[in-house]
Automatic annotation (TrEMBL):
Additional observations: This enzyme catalyzes only one turnover and therefore is not strictly catalytic. According to one definition, an enzyme is a biocatalyst that acts repeatedly and over many reaction cycles.
Organism in which the protein naturally occurs: Achromobacter veterisilvae
Family, as annotated: Belongs to the MGMT family.
Taxonomic lineage: Bacteria, Pseudomonadati, Pseudomonadota, Betaproteobacteria, Burkholderiales
GO BP: any one term: methylation
Protein name in UniProt: Methylated-DNA--protein-cysteine methyltransferase
Function noted in UniProt: Involved in the cellular defense against the biological effects of O6-methylguanine (O6-MeG) and O4-methylthymine (O4-MeT) in DNA. Repairs the methylated nucleobase in DNA by stoichiometrically transferring the methyl group to a cysteine residue in the enzyme. This is a suicide reaction: the enzyme is irreversibly inactivated.
UniProt-annotated location(s): Cytoplasm
Length: 182
């Protein structure tokens, strides 16, 4: 079977260089940080197999790149529903789909996420699936926190998780509109 070919872009963000991988259909396949590139390659091997993926430079900015840049500029909805494709187990995909249901500016605990997928005793497995998410930010694993509201684990580092949550809180806050006389 021929290797899958993904376009690789290196995108400057307020949190450092981001790696963005898309396929020929412009679906997002992976997002990671340049300082965690080794981990990204490990996740790709786990999902697709050894030597199953080839990376090429992108010829032009992808839709995924533009959506992520808009997200970092404060347009949080730019990534909502963005098309993604990934491997993973049935359980992992179930967790990743549930992550997409967490609104920007909101957080849930691993236990609450396990309840959402109707697997309340699978808290640890939910955490492992969360950590194996290949499409961070768009599949918002950073919105999952500890039961005591602590910032627990994030593949890109807790400083990035904290920044992403603060960024979303800033841009989700809506100023109150003045009431109009009626």
């Amino acid at each position: 079977m021929p290797a899958l070919t993904f376009a690789l872009e290196r995108v400057a963000t307020p949190l450092g260089q981001m790696l963005v991988l898309t396929d020929e259909q412009q679906r997002l396949r992976a997002v990671d940080w340049e300082d965690h590139e080794t981990r990204m390659h490990t996740l790709l091997r786990r999902q697709y197999g050894t030597d199953a993926v080839r990376l090429d430079g992108a010829g032009q900015p992808s839709r995924a790149r533009r959506a992520l840049e808009a997200y970092f500029d404060g347009e949080l909805a730019a990534i909502d529903g963005f098309p993604v494709a990934f491997g993973g187990t049935v359980f992992q995909r179930q967790v990743w789909q549930a992550l997409r249901g967490i609104a920007g500016g909101q957080t849930v605990s691993y236990g609450a996420l396990a309840h959402r997928i109707e697997r309340p005793t699978a808290v640890r497995a939910v955490g492992l699936a969360n950590g194996a998410n290949p499409v961070g930010i768009v599949i918002p694993c950073h919105r999952v926190i500890g039961a005591n509201a602590s910032l627990t684990g994030y593949g890109g580092g807790l400083h990035r998780k904290r920044w992403l949550l603060e960024h979303e809180a800033r841009h989700c806050a809506r100023p109150a509109r003045p009431s109009t006389p009626g």
